Amino acid sequence: MSLDRSKLDISQLRVLIVDDEADLRLGLMRLVETLGIKAQQAADGREALAAFDQQEWDLVLTDLMMPGMTGAELLVEIKKVQPQTAVVLLTGFGSVQTAVQCLQDGASHFLTKPFDNQDVLNIIQRLGCQLLARRQPREVGVAMVAEDPATQRMLDLVRQVAPRQVPVLVEGESGTGKEVVARALHRWSSVSEAKFVAVNCAAVSDTLLESELFGHVRGAFTGADRDRSGVFAEVQGGTVFLDEVASMSPAFQGKLLRVLQEKVVRPVGADRDIQVNFRLIAATNRDLEELVAKGEFREDLYFRLRVVPVYIPPLRERQHDILPLALHFLLRETKVCLGSDAPPPEFAAETIERLMQHAWPGNVRELENCIMRAMIVSGGQRILSHHLGLDESGWRQEKQESAAGDEAIGSNQTSQIESDDYAEAKRQTVERFQREFVERALEHSHGNVSQAAMDCGLTRAAFQKILRQLGVDRGSFS
């Protein structure tokens, strides 16, 4: 999705101006205010760092030569506490060596005095758009729509903690979007360009999980015909997301605790440790505190994982997200099923009411699958309430409307269409739509069934069953 920079309001920027000369601070303050930005000021490096204890800052304009702490030293300290902050250094004593060193330490720009005011404004606007783009809360990853105040508060915390390399525990019911939040934490972190690897701890046994995360050496077990690096080593400074950590056995919990404490792993079958560097995000749909009380989860590991807890409210507690999410999924499925230029079908009024009334025990995942089904059953036409398939009465209504449709056709046409003919025509229409649906997904994934199934919100087994029923050969899309 391309970002419309014209819609980014840079007046939202939190700008700090640091200079030991009051008149220069005042001049820069007034210059920044011409962009609608309410900047704050600090007289030296220590005062600036004290401001960082109070809040986060998007952009710092700082003089290089200041008594006590230089701008270069301030830059280093800022990057330690808030790596995402952009720092622009201003100096009348510039040199190539100084500029290179500051840029290597993370400075966004280096200007030599006397500078042109327009150059400063251009830099603020450019950096401001980049910073605000990263902070966009409306959509994260695949479908993290945040219109409800509860979701927005949660995302505010995610943005706040993302730049800090501390473990995060994402808590919430199944289907709420824990991996989507984990990917947002990675995307907004200082290691966003590094790898993000997700591992479902409930999907594999302890033995396989140890090999997956720690790696193994050749001959460590049957089938280990070569050395393999584990996930912790492969991410190389990136993010490891461990989903459903409550499913790990107590024995494996102890091994994971050692990795977190010492940042070393020992591959299965190896006789030495390997140093690793990664940021850990864990997730669970169970109450770990309760499991600790029962002795089913290690207390020391619990505190290691839960340095910062992020709780995702269930969909029933974020009513304002339901319709925006439904529209988001509708737009996505329209592109997949009908093409990128096709207009999405509309929701009937009773459909919107049904969406808002449903309890959504399966949360966002249930809503996503519901909209996908509605697209298929409706044939891409106006989506009625029974197309959602939220209860058995919907199926009964669909049958009744099919019969009513037969009667309407009979009254308006000279030759009456029998109900079995109508049902067959409808079956063929749905089948054509299903075929186009799965074929577009396979085309997009270049024949990768797992990826196509994921894009469609289906399990691999369910997707393969549809392929068999339709006689679709995935090989023709490779």
Describe this structure in words.
The radius of gyration is 28 Å and the shape is globular. The protein has about 475 residues and is of the alpha/beta class. The two termini are about 25 Å apart. Strands 2-1-3-4-5 form a five-stranded parallel beta sheet, with helices on both faces. Helix 2 (about 45-55) packs parallel to helix 3 (about 70-80) and helix 13 (about 320-340) packs across helix 15 (about 365-380). It has helices at about 20-35, 45-55, 70-80, 95-105, 115-135, 150-160, 180-185, 205-215, 230-235, 250-260, 290-295, 300-305, 320-340, 350-355, 365-380, 390-410, 420-445, 450-455, 460-470, and strands at about 15-20, 40, 60-65, 85-90, 110, 140, 145, 170, 195-200, 215, 230, 240-245, 265, 275, 280-285, 310. The chain has three domains: about 5-135, Response regulator (Rossmann fold, 3-Layer(aba) Sandwich); about 140-315, 3-Layer(aba) Sandwich (Rossmann fold), CATH 3.40.50.300; about 315-475, Orthogonal Bundle (Helicase, Ruva Protein, domain 3). Helices cover about 50% and strands about 10% of the residues.
> What is the CATH-assigned architecture of the largest domain?
3-Layer(aba) Sandwich
In the sheet with the most strands, the strands line up as: 2-1-3-4-5
Give me the secondary-structure category: alpha/beta
Our count of domains comes out at 3
Shape: globular
| Main beta sheet | 5 strands, parallel
Q: What portion of the residues fall into strands of 2 or more residues?
A: 5-15%
CATH class of the largest domain: Alpha Beta
Report the CATH superfamily of the largest domain.
Answer: P-loop containing nucleotide triphosphate hydrolases
Poorly predicted regions are 1-7, 136-143, 392-399, 405-419
The tally of helices reads 19
Cα distance, first to last residue?
26 Å
Counting DSSP E segments of at least 2 residues, the number of strands comes to: 16
CATH topology of the largest domain: Rossmann fold
Average pLDDT reading: 82
Helix content: 40-55%
Rg, rounded, reads: 28 Å
